[in-house]
Amino acid sequence: xxxxxxxxxxxxxxxxxxxxxxxxxxxxxxxxxxxxxxxxxxxxxxxxxxxxxxxxxxxxxxxxxxxxxxxxxxxxxxxxxxxxxxxxxxxxxxxxxxxxxxxxxxxxxxxxxxxxxxxxxxxxxx
Length: 126
Hints:
By secondary structure, this protein is mainly beta.
């Protein structure tokens, strides 16, 4: 059985009143919440998650190299466990900010072999 498909819902709420902020909260139960920021584009290397991930885009846009959608302000994204992807922020994006709720491990994966090359979790983020 393969991984569940991702879910992308554009504009789940109005972000007109959103204020620029930076936050990260870690939890000993195995999850953390962080604001991921990129300025002027970038890549978060190929990875997968051992548990579900939820994201809401607050500013700018981003997507996954392996999928055809683009998350914009107000977009909700669900990442199922085991789904492998590479986060891309286009070079012409002035600033991207997305709130991620990550449970379990983020496993970095080699593009050539598919083997795990490293990981992050709530404890490595402390």
